[in-house]
């Protein structure tokens, strides 16, 4: 195979790997941003549940105090009712006591409602606290792994750039310029294998004579349909794989 052809095939491999690493390096921070955003969402949900639970507890404490005030008021009214001089005064105190007792029952019903509401809130908070602790550890682990992976990728990328630079210096300038033009025009794919008279990139059949010229490997050739640089890998004979020499009969 022509040296320039070998070089552009390797160059294509390097560029493919460079593109892959570049995408990965770019995607890793996005992945971290996504899991951190998810973590923040769970944190906000936990804070909202905690706030709801706190509000529930504060209201219960307040209205429990209101019950004590009503009970104190009833006790005072009962004391005053004993000293009532007339039936009207007695009935008035009785009505006020009944009103206070009704208010106590209303408050007790509200306390039961708040207790019912607080049970799932307390459960959710406890579960969320445990889950959030585990999630934070997982996020930190993934962030560390991402930092390590990015460092490795960047090191590999630097090595590939150095190899590419040396390889480019070995390619005939005109061939390299053509490689770059085709690569930019064809989405990063400038080289294609020819198999059974077809370009394996665009799948178009080539003229028989053109394919024969390609197999002779005398010059760098391009697909007449898509413009990519073509290469041909001749079939490998069995004896080439086994390193066993052919017999005179097999040769003749």
Describe the structure.
The chain is mainly alpha-helical and 252 residues long. It folds into two domains: 3-170, Helix Hairpins (Orthogonal Bundle); 173-239, no CATH class. The protein is built from six helices and four strands, in the order αααββαββαα. Strands 2-1-4-3 form a four-stranded mixed sheet. β1 and β2 (198-199) form a beta hairpin. α1 packs antiparallel against α2 (87-170). The protein is rod-shaped. Residues 247-252 have low confidence and may be disordered.
Write the layout of secondary structure elements.
Layout: H1 3-82, H2 87-170, H3 173-185, E1 191-195, E2 198-199, H4 208-216, E3 221-222, E4 229-231, H5 238-242, H6 248-251
Helix pairs in contact: 1-2
Task: Tag the structure with descriptive keywords.
77% helix; four-stranded mixed beta sheet; mainly alpha; 252 residues; 6 helices; disordered C terminus; Helix Hairpins
CATH class type of the largest domain? Mainly Alpha
Which residue ranges are poorly predicted, with pLDDT under 50 across at least 5 consecutive positions? Answer: 247-252
* Main β-sheet, spatial strand arrangement: 2-1-4-3
Largest sheet: 4 strands, mixed
Distance between the termini: 26 Å
Rounded Rg: 42 Å
Care to count the β-strands?
4
* Backbone shape: rod-shaped
CATH fold node name of the largest domain: Helix Hairpins
**Structural domains: how many:** 2
CATH architecture label of the largest domain: Orthogonal Bundle
Compute the number of helices: 6
Query: How do the helices and strands follow one another from N- to C-terminus?
Result: HHHEEHEEHH
Helix content class: over 70%
Q: What is the average of the pLDDT values?
A: 88
Query: In percent terms, what proportion of residues is strand?
Result: under 5%
